[in-house]
Please model this.
Amino acid sequence: MLNQQTIGKPVTFSGIGLHSGNKVKMTFLPAPPNFGLRFRRTDLDGKPEVEARAEHVSETNRSTTLTKGAVKIHTTEHVLAAFAGAGVDNAVIELDANEPPIADGSSREYARMINEAGLVPQTEGREVYAIREPVELRLGETVMSAFPYDGLRVTCTSADKQGRFTQFFSLEVTPETWAKELSHARTFCFYEEIEFLYKNGLIKGGSLENAIVIRDDAILTNEPLRYAEEFVRHKMLDILGDLALVGRPLRGHIMAVKPSHQANCELAKALGAQMRKPLQTAQSFAPPPPAAVAAAERPAPAKAAEMKVEKSTAPVPEAMIVDGATLDVMQVMKLLPHRPPFLMVDKVVKIEGNRVVAVKNVTMGEPYFAGHFPGHPIMPGVLQLEAIAQVAGILVMRQAENIGKIAYFMSAEEVKWRKPVRPGDTLTIDVELTKMRGKIGKAKGVCSVAGEPVSEANVTFMLIDGE
Model:
Protein backbone atom coordinates (compact mmCIF):
# COMPACT_ATOMS: atom_id res chain seq x y z
CA MET A 1 0.00 0.00 0.00
CA LEU A 2 1.34 3.43 -0.92
CA ASN A 3 1.55 6.11 1.74
CA GLN A 4 -0.59 9.23 1.88
CA GLN A 5 0.92 12.45 0.57
CA THR A 6 0.74 16.14 1.34
CA ILE A 7 2.61 19.12 -0.11
CA GLY A 8 6.00 20.29 1.12
CA LYS A 9 5.37 23.98 1.77
CA PRO A 10 2.76 26.76 1.41
CA VAL A 11 2.27 28.20 -2.08
CA THR A 12 0.10 31.16 -3.07
CA PHE A 13 -1.66 32.43 -6.19
CA SER A 14 -3.97 35.44 -6.65
CA GLY A 15 -6.56 36.21 -9.32
CA ILE A 16 -10.30 36.56 -9.84
CA GLY A 17 -13.17 34.11 -9.47
CA LEU A 18 -14.81 32.96 -12.72
CA HIS A 19 -18.42 33.33 -11.59
CA SER A 20 -18.15 35.88 -8.76
CA GLY A 21 -15.58 38.15 -10.41
CA ASN A 22 -14.13 38.74 -6.92
CA LYS A 23 -10.42 39.23 -6.35
CA VAL A 24 -9.08 36.33 -4.33
CA LYS A 25 -5.83 35.12 -2.80
CA MET A 26 -5.46 31.34 -2.57
CA THR A 27 -2.83 29.44 -0.58
CA PHE A 28 -2.19 25.69 -0.55
CA LEU A 29 -0.94 24.45 2.84
CA PRO A 30 0.39 21.07 4.03
CA ALA A 31 -1.92 18.99 6.24
CA PRO A 32 -1.48 15.96 8.53
CA PRO A 33 -2.37 12.35 7.60
CA ASN A 34 -6.09 11.49 7.32
CA PHE A 35 -6.95 15.21 7.15
CA GLY A 36 -8.25 15.08 3.58
CA LEU A 37 -8.74 18.14 1.39
CA ARG A 38 -10.42 21.13 3.04
CA PHE A 39 -11.26 24.67 1.97
CA ARG A 40 -10.69 27.37 4.59
CA ARG A 41 -12.30 30.83 4.40
CA THR A 42 -9.80 33.26 5.97
CA ASP A 43 -12.12 36.22 5.30
CA LEU A 44 -14.75 34.90 7.74
CA ASP A 45 -14.75 34.91 11.54
CA GLY A 46 -13.10 31.83 12.95
CA LYS A 47 -11.69 30.83 9.55
CA PRO A 48 -14.31 28.10 9.03
CA GLU A 49 -13.46 25.02 6.96
CA VAL A 50 -15.48 22.98 4.48
CA GLU A 51 -14.34 19.43 3.82
CA ALA A 52 -14.19 18.39 0.17
CA ARG A 53 -16.91 15.76 0.56
CA ALA A 54 -19.94 14.97 -1.58
CA GLU A 55 -22.36 15.56 1.31
CA HIS A 56 -21.43 19.25 1.23
CA VAL A 57 -22.45 19.77 -2.42
CA SER A 58 -25.21 22.39 -2.57
CA GLU A 59 -25.18 23.73 -6.15
CA THR A 60 -24.09 22.26 -9.49
CA ASN A 61 -25.10 24.92 -12.01
CA ARG A 62 -22.05 25.32 -14.29
CA SER A 63 -19.72 24.52 -11.38
CA THR A 64 -19.66 22.66 -8.07
CA THR A 65 -20.42 24.60 -4.88
CA LEU A 66 -19.72 23.22 -1.41
CA THR A 67 -21.70 24.51 1.58
CA LYS A 68 -21.34 23.85 5.29
CA GLY A 69 -23.67 25.87 7.46
CA ALA A 70 -23.50 29.43 6.17
CA VAL A 71 -20.08 28.94 4.50
CA LYS A 72 -19.92 28.49 0.72
CA ILE A 73 -17.09 27.73 -1.69
CA HIS A 74 -17.92 28.06 -5.40
CA THR A 75 -16.17 26.45 -8.41
CA THR A 76 -14.17 23.87 -6.48
CA GLU A 77 -13.69 21.30 -9.24
CA HIS A 78 -10.55 22.61 -11.00
CA VAL A 79 -8.57 22.87 -7.75
CA LEU A 80 -9.72 19.45 -6.53
CA ALA A 81 -8.82 17.92 -9.90
CA ALA A 82 -5.25 19.19 -9.49
CA PHE A 83 -4.87 17.54 -6.09
CA ALA A 84 -6.53 14.30 -7.24
CA GLY A 85 -4.45 14.17 -10.42
CA ALA A 86 -1.19 14.73 -8.55
CA GLY A 87 -2.07 12.18 -5.87
CA VAL A 88 -2.27 14.61 -2.94
CA ASP A 89 -4.37 13.22 -0.10
CA ASN A 90 -4.12 15.93 2.55
CA ALA A 91 -4.02 19.71 2.10
CA VAL A 92 -5.71 22.98 3.09
CA ILE A 93 -6.93 25.37 0.39
CA GLU A 94 -7.08 28.82 2.01
CA LEU A 95 -9.21 31.50 0.33
CA ASP A 96 -9.97 35.09 1.29
CA ALA A 97 -13.15 35.07 -0.86
CA ASN A 98 -15.87 32.58 -1.81
CA GLU A 99 -14.28 31.17 -4.99
CA PRO A 100 -10.78 30.11 -6.07
CA PRO A 101 -9.05 32.20 -8.74
CA ILE A 102 -9.93 30.81 -12.17
CA ALA A 103 -6.43 31.41 -13.65
CA ASP A 104 -6.61 30.43 -17.34
CA GLY A 105 -9.70 28.22 -16.98
CA SER A 106 -7.76 24.98 -16.63
CA SER A 107 -5.90 23.34 -13.74
CA ARG A 108 -2.47 24.23 -15.11
CA GLU A 109 -1.71 26.94 -12.55
CA TYR A 110 -2.80 24.76 -9.65
CA ALA A 111 -0.66 21.88 -10.94
CA ARG A 112 2.29 24.28 -11.12
CA MET A 113 1.69 25.31 -7.49
CA ILE A 114 1.69 21.69 -6.35
CA ASN A 115 4.90 21.02 -8.29
CA GLU A 116 6.50 24.09 -6.70
CA ALA A 117 5.47 22.95 -3.22
CA GLY A 118 6.66 19.39 -3.82
CA LEU A 119 5.10 16.16 -2.59
CA VAL A 120 5.86 14.73 0.85
CA PRO A 121 5.08 11.08 1.73
CA GLN A 122 3.38 10.61 5.11
CA THR A 123 3.39 7.84 7.68
CA GLU A 124 -0.18 6.64 7.12
CA GLY A 125 -1.07 4.27 4.28
CA ARG A 126 -3.31 5.44 1.44
CA GLU A 127 -6.65 3.64 1.26
CA VAL A 128 -7.66 3.47 -2.39
CA TYR A 129 -11.30 2.56 -2.95
CA ALA A 130 -11.65 -0.12 -5.62
CA ILE A 131 -15.14 -0.02 -7.13
CA ARG A 132 -16.71 -3.39 -6.32
CA GLU A 133 -19.73 -3.47 -8.60
CA PRO A 134 -21.08 -1.41 -11.51
CA VAL A 135 -22.88 1.86 -10.78
CA GLU A 136 -24.96 3.68 -13.39
CA LEU A 137 -27.08 6.81 -13.29
CA ARG A 138 -28.99 8.77 -15.90
CA LEU A 139 -29.99 12.44 -15.77
CA GLY A 140 -31.70 13.51 -18.99
CA GLU A 141 -29.20 12.99 -21.81
CA THR A 142 -26.38 12.35 -19.33
CA VAL A 143 -25.22 8.81 -18.59
CA MET A 144 -22.56 8.14 -15.94
CA SER A 145 -21.18 4.68 -15.19
CA ALA A 146 -18.46 3.28 -12.96
CA PHE A 147 -17.03 -0.23 -13.29
CA PRO A 148 -14.42 -2.33 -11.47
CA TYR A 149 -11.02 -1.88 -13.10
CA ASP A 150 -7.40 -2.37 -12.07
CA GLY A 151 -6.31 1.26 -12.29
CA LEU A 152 -8.13 4.52 -12.95
CA ARG A 153 -9.46 5.16 -16.44
CA VAL A 154 -11.85 7.87 -17.59
CA THR A 155 -13.69 7.55 -20.89
CA CYS A 156 -15.88 10.43 -22.00
CA THR A 157 -18.04 11.66 -24.88
CA SER A 158 -19.10 15.31 -24.88
CA ALA A 159 -21.37 17.39 -27.10
CA ASP A 160 -23.83 20.26 -26.76
CA LYS A 161 -27.59 19.81 -27.08
CA GLN A 162 -27.36 20.27 -30.85
CA GLY A 163 -24.61 17.70 -31.19
CA ARG A 164 -21.96 20.28 -32.12
CA PHE A 165 -18.30 19.63 -31.44
CA THR A 166 -18.88 16.04 -30.40
CA GLN A 167 -15.61 14.70 -28.99
CA PHE A 168 -14.43 11.42 -27.47
CA PHE A 169 -11.38 10.67 -25.36
CA SER A 170 -10.24 7.90 -23.04
CA LEU A 171 -7.25 8.01 -20.71
CA GLU A 172 -5.51 5.90 -18.08
CA VAL A 173 -5.12 8.52 -15.35
CA THR A 174 -1.80 8.67 -13.51
CA PRO A 175 0.06 11.71 -12.11
CA GLU A 176 2.08 11.76 -15.33
CA THR A 177 -0.85 11.52 -17.77
CA TRP A 178 -2.87 13.97 -15.67
CA ALA A 179 -0.16 16.61 -15.95
CA LYS A 180 0.38 16.08 -19.67
CA GLU A 181 -3.02 15.14 -21.07
CA LEU A 182 -5.71 16.80 -18.91
CA SER A 183 -4.45 19.59 -16.62
CA HIS A 184 -4.08 22.16 -19.44
CA ALA A 185 -7.63 21.74 -20.84
CA ARG A 186 -9.60 24.99 -20.46
CA THR A 187 -13.24 25.56 -19.64
CA PHE A 188 -15.56 26.61 -22.47
CA CYS A 189 -19.07 27.81 -23.22
CA PHE A 190 -21.27 28.50 -26.22
CA TYR A 191 -21.80 32.11 -27.30
CA GLU A 192 -25.59 31.90 -27.02
CA GLU A 193 -25.27 30.91 -23.34
CA ILE A 194 -23.29 33.98 -22.29
CA GLU A 195 -26.19 36.42 -21.84
CA PHE A 196 -28.23 33.90 -19.85
CA LEU A 197 -25.29 33.03 -17.60
CA TYR A 198 -24.45 36.65 -16.92
CA LYS A 199 -28.06 37.59 -16.13
CA ASN A 200 -28.13 34.70 -13.63
CA GLY A 201 -25.14 36.03 -11.73
CA LEU A 202 -22.54 33.75 -13.30
CA ILE A 203 -19.28 34.25 -15.30
CA LYS A 204 -18.79 37.78 -13.93
CA GLY A 205 -15.05 37.15 -14.12
CA GLY A 206 -15.16 35.34 -17.45
CA SER A 207 -13.14 36.42 -20.51
CA LEU A 208 -11.11 34.93 -23.33
CA GLU A 209 -8.23 34.93 -20.85
CA ASN A 210 -9.87 32.12 -18.89
CA ALA A 211 -12.39 30.44 -21.19
CA ILE A 212 -12.97 29.33 -24.76
CA VAL A 213 -16.12 30.61 -26.47
CA ILE A 214 -17.77 28.65 -29.29
CA ARG A 215 -19.85 30.73 -31.73
CA ASP A 216 -21.53 28.69 -34.44
CA ASP A 217 -18.61 26.81 -36.00
CA ALA A 218 -15.96 29.31 -34.86
CA ILE A 219 -13.76 28.91 -31.80
CA LEU A 220 -12.93 32.17 -30.04
CA THR A 221 -9.76 31.93 -27.94
CA ASN A 222 -6.70 34.02 -27.18
CA GLU A 223 -4.41 31.14 -28.14
CA PRO A 224 -4.66 27.98 -30.29
CA LEU A 225 -6.39 24.95 -28.81
CA ARG A 226 -4.05 23.08 -26.48
CA TYR A 227 -5.45 19.70 -27.49
CA ALA A 228 -7.45 18.61 -30.52
CA GLU A 229 -10.07 17.31 -28.05
CA GLU A 230 -9.75 20.13 -25.50
CA PHE A 231 -13.47 20.30 -24.77
CA VAL A 232 -13.93 16.66 -23.81
CA ARG A 233 -10.63 16.66 -21.93
CA HIS A 234 -11.88 19.56 -19.82
CA LYS A 235 -15.03 17.55 -19.09
CA MET A 236 -12.77 14.75 -17.87
CA LEU A 237 -10.87 17.26 -15.71
CA ASP A 238 -14.20 18.24 -14.14
CA ILE A 239 -15.05 14.58 -13.54
CA LEU A 240 -11.79 14.02 -11.65
CA GLY A 241 -12.39 17.12 -9.53
CA ASP A 242 -15.97 16.23 -8.67
CA LEU A 243 -15.14 12.58 -7.93
CA ALA A 244 -12.45 13.77 -5.50
CA LEU A 245 -15.48 14.47 -3.27
CA VAL A 246 -15.69 10.72 -2.58
CA GLY A 247 -12.88 11.42 -0.12
CA ARG A 248 -10.55 8.62 -1.22
CA PRO A 249 -8.56 7.84 -4.37
CA LEU A 250 -10.53 5.65 -6.76
CA ARG A 251 -9.69 2.51 -8.70
CA GLY A 252 -12.17 1.89 -11.48
CA HIS A 253 -13.28 2.79 -15.00
CA ILE A 254 -15.49 5.89 -15.20
CA MET A 255 -17.53 6.20 -18.40
CA ALA A 256 -19.48 9.38 -19.14
CA VAL A 257 -21.74 10.58 -21.94
CA LYS A 258 -22.50 14.31 -21.89
CA PRO A 259 -21.40 14.67 -18.24
CA SER A 260 -22.45 17.55 -15.98
CA HIS A 261 -21.45 18.68 -12.51
CA GLN A 262 -24.78 17.47 -11.17
CA ALA A 263 -24.26 13.99 -12.60
CA ASN A 264 -20.60 13.89 -11.50
CA CYS A 265 -21.57 14.72 -7.92
CA GLU A 266 -24.45 12.23 -7.87
CA LEU A 267 -21.99 9.56 -9.01
CA ALA A 268 -19.61 10.64 -6.23
CA LYS A 269 -22.45 10.20 -3.70
CA ALA A 270 -23.36 6.79 -5.12
CA LEU A 271 -19.75 5.62 -4.95
CA GLY A 272 -19.46 6.98 -1.41
CA ALA A 273 -22.55 5.01 -0.38
CA GLN A 274 -21.14 1.85 -1.97
CA MET A 275 -17.81 2.43 -0.22
CA ARG A 276 -19.37 2.83 3.23
CA LYS A 277 -21.92 0.03 2.99
CA PRO A 278 -19.76 -2.90 4.12
CA LEU A 279 -17.59 -0.84 6.46
CA GLN A 280 -20.08 0.88 8.74
CA THR A 281 -22.68 -0.51 11.10
CA ALA A 282 -25.86 0.99 12.40
CA GLN A 283 -25.79 2.38 15.91
CA SER A 284 -28.61 1.25 18.17
CA PHE A 285 -30.33 4.15 19.91
CA ALA A 286 -32.76 2.01 21.92
CA PRO A 287 -31.78 -0.30 24.81
CA PRO A 288 -30.76 -3.77 23.54
CA PRO A 289 -33.40 -6.49 23.72
CA PRO A 290 -33.35 -8.65 26.88
CA ALA A 291 -31.95 -11.66 25.02
CA ALA A 292 -28.98 -9.63 23.82
CA VAL A 293 -28.35 -8.30 27.33
CA ALA A 294 -28.45 -11.79 28.81
CA ALA A 295 -26.07 -13.07 26.12
CA ALA A 296 -23.67 -10.22 26.77
CA GLU A 297 -23.66 -10.95 30.52
CA ARG A 298 -22.84 -14.64 30.08
CA PRO A 299 -19.09 -15.37 30.23
CA ALA A 300 -17.75 -16.54 26.88
CA PRO A 301 -14.46 -16.77 25.03
CA ALA A 302 -13.30 -13.55 23.33
CA LYS A 303 -13.77 -15.03 19.89
CA ALA A 304 -17.37 -16.02 20.61
CA ALA A 305 -18.13 -12.52 21.91
CA GLU A 306 -16.77 -11.03 18.70
CA MET A 307 -19.05 -13.29 16.67
CA LYS A 308 -22.05 -12.02 18.64
CA VAL A 309 -21.22 -8.43 17.72
CA GLU A 310 -20.81 -9.27 14.05
CA LYS A 311 -24.24 -10.89 13.92
CA SER A 312 -25.91 -7.76 15.33
CA THR A 313 -24.65 -5.37 12.62
CA ALA A 314 -26.96 -3.79 10.03
CA PRO A 315 -26.75 -1.42 7.01
CA VAL A 316 -25.70 2.14 7.79
CA PRO A 317 -28.59 4.62 8.12
CA GLU A 318 -26.45 7.42 6.62
CA ALA A 319 -26.71 5.84 3.18
CA MET A 320 -30.43 6.71 3.26
CA ILE A 321 -29.85 10.43 3.75
CA VAL A 322 -29.16 11.53 0.19
CA ASP A 323 -30.64 14.29 -1.95
CA GLY A 324 -34.08 13.37 -3.25
CA ALA A 325 -34.67 10.56 -0.74
CA THR A 326 -37.68 10.17 1.56
CA LEU A 327 -37.67 8.30 4.88
CA ASP A 328 -40.55 6.46 6.50
CA VAL A 329 -40.98 6.29 10.28
CA MET A 330 -39.01 3.03 10.59
CA GLN A 331 -36.03 4.62 8.84
CA VAL A 332 -36.41 7.76 10.97
CA MET A 333 -36.15 5.61 14.12
CA LYS A 334 -32.82 4.23 12.85
CA LEU A 335 -31.50 7.79 12.90
CA LEU A 336 -33.07 9.28 16.02
CA PRO A 337 -32.98 7.99 19.61
CA HIS A 338 -36.54 9.21 20.29
CA ARG A 339 -39.49 6.83 20.50
CA PRO A 340 -43.25 7.34 20.78
CA PRO A 341 -44.81 9.23 22.37
CA PHE A 342 -41.87 11.65 22.12
CA LEU A 343 -41.00 11.00 18.47
CA MET A 344 -42.14 14.14 16.62
CA VAL A 345 -41.31 13.00 13.06
CA ASP A 346 -43.50 10.59 11.10
CA LYS A 347 -41.81 10.95 7.71
CA VAL A 348 -39.06 12.84 5.92
CA VAL A 349 -40.44 14.10 2.61
CA LYS A 350 -37.51 16.08 1.23
CA ILE A 351 -33.71 16.06 1.54
CA GLU A 352 -31.84 18.75 -0.34
CA GLY A 353 -28.34 19.93 0.53
CA ASN A 354 -28.40 21.49 4.01
CA ARG A 355 -32.20 21.29 4.23
CA VAL A 356 -34.62 18.60 5.40
CA VAL A 357 -38.44 18.74 5.33
CA ALA A 358 -40.42 16.34 7.50
CA VAL A 359 -44.04 15.88 8.62
CA LYS A 360 -45.82 15.01 11.85
CA ASN A 361 -49.44 13.86 11.69
CA VAL A 362 -51.15 15.36 14.72
CA THR A 363 -53.92 13.03 15.92
CA MET A 364 -56.41 13.16 18.78
CA GLY A 365 -54.63 10.11 20.20
CA GLU A 366 -51.58 12.16 21.20
CA PRO A 367 -51.25 11.73 25.00
CA TYR A 368 -50.65 15.43 25.69
CA PHE A 369 -54.12 16.38 24.44
CA ALA A 370 -55.63 14.85 27.58
CA GLY A 371 -54.43 17.81 29.58
CA HIS A 372 -53.63 20.47 26.92
CA PHE A 373 -56.44 21.39 27.04
CA PRO A 374 -59.60 19.40 27.94
CA GLY A 375 -62.29 20.44 25.47
CA HIS A 376 -59.86 22.62 23.53
CA PRO A 377 -56.95 20.42 22.34
CA ILE A 378 -53.84 22.33 21.15
CA MET A 379 -50.39 20.91 20.41
CA PRO A 380 -47.90 22.44 22.90
CA GLY A 381 -45.55 24.93 21.32
CA VAL A 382 -42.55 23.32 23.02
CA LEU A 383 -43.26 20.09 21.15
CA GLN A 384 -43.19 21.97 17.85
CA LEU A 385 -39.80 23.28 18.99
CA GLU A 386 -38.79 19.71 19.78
CA ALA A 387 -39.88 18.65 16.29
CA ILE A 388 -37.52 21.26 14.80
CA ALA A 389 -34.67 19.95 16.97
CA GLN A 390 -35.34 16.34 15.95
CA VAL A 391 -35.31 17.20 12.23
CA ALA A 392 -32.06 19.09 12.77
CA GLY A 393 -30.70 15.88 14.31
CA ILE A 394 -31.58 13.98 11.12
CA LEU A 395 -29.94 16.69 9.02
CA VAL A 396 -26.51 16.39 10.66
CA MET A 397 -26.52 12.62 10.02
CA ARG A 398 -25.79 13.43 6.35
CA GLN A 399 -22.13 13.49 7.36
CA ALA A 400 -20.69 10.00 7.76
CA GLU A 401 -18.66 10.97 10.82
CA ASN A 402 -21.89 11.84 12.70
CA ILE A 403 -23.57 8.46 12.28
CA GLY A 404 -24.38 7.01 15.69
CA LYS A 405 -24.18 10.35 17.48
CA ILE A 406 -27.01 12.11 19.30
CA ALA A 407 -27.90 15.78 18.88
CA TYR A 408 -28.49 17.33 22.34
CA PHE A 409 -30.83 20.33 22.22
CA MET A 410 -29.00 23.24 23.90
CA SER A 411 -30.95 26.44 23.26
CA ALA A 412 -33.55 28.20 21.13
CA GLU A 413 -33.63 31.79 19.95
CA GLU A 414 -36.11 33.99 18.09
CA VAL A 415 -38.89 31.54 18.95
CA LYS A 416 -42.30 32.53 17.64
CA TRP A 417 -45.63 30.73 17.88
CA ARG A 418 -48.11 32.16 15.41
CA LYS A 419 -51.15 29.85 15.22
CA PRO A 420 -52.51 26.90 17.20
CA VAL A 421 -51.99 23.36 15.92
CA ARG A 422 -54.98 21.06 16.45
CA PRO A 423 -55.82 17.36 16.05
CA GLY A 424 -56.14 16.45 12.38
CA ASP A 425 -53.44 18.91 11.27
CA THR A 426 -50.35 17.79 9.39
CA LEU A 427 -47.36 19.66 10.77
CA THR A 428 -44.64 20.30 8.17
CA ILE A 429 -41.20 20.88 9.70
CA ASP A 430 -38.71 22.65 7.40
CA VAL A 431 -35.18 22.86 8.84
CA GLU A 432 -31.99 24.30 7.34
CA LEU A 433 -28.53 23.87 8.87
CA THR A 434 -26.98 27.34 9.14
CA LYS A 435 -23.73 26.64 10.98
CA MET A 436 -21.64 23.67 12.05
CA ARG A 437 -18.37 24.09 13.91
CA GLY A 438 -16.91 21.07 15.63
CA LYS A 439 -19.62 19.46 17.77
CA ILE A 440 -21.85 22.57 17.91
CA GLY A 441 -24.47 23.23 15.25
CA LYS A 442 -27.17 25.81 14.57
CA ALA A 443 -30.30 25.43 12.47
CA LYS A 444 -33.30 27.50 11.38
CA GLY A 445 -36.66 25.74 11.57
CA VAL A 446 -40.17 26.66 10.47
CA CYS A 447 -43.30 24.62 11.24
CA SER A 448 -46.35 25.11 9.05
CA VAL A 449 -49.84 23.71 8.53
CA ALA A 450 -51.40 23.81 5.06
CA GLY A 451 -48.64 26.17 3.92
CA GLU A 452 -49.13 28.71 6.74
CA PRO A 453 -46.33 29.14 9.34
CA VAL A 454 -47.42 28.22 12.86
CA SER A 455 -44.05 28.43 14.65
CA GLU A 456 -40.37 29.08 14.02
CA ALA A 457 -37.07 29.11 15.89
CA ASN A 458 -33.30 29.10 15.63
CA VAL A 459 -31.95 26.12 17.58
CA THR A 460 -28.48 25.25 18.85
CA PHE A 461 -27.43 21.67 19.55
CA MET A 462 -24.37 19.65 20.52
CA LEU A 463 -23.36 16.28 19.07
CA ILE A 464 -22.33 13.58 21.54
CA ASP A 465 -21.43 9.94 20.99
CA GLY A 466 -24.33 7.51 21.28
CA GLU A 467 -24.04 4.74 23.80
Remarks:
- The chain is about 20% helix and 35% strand.
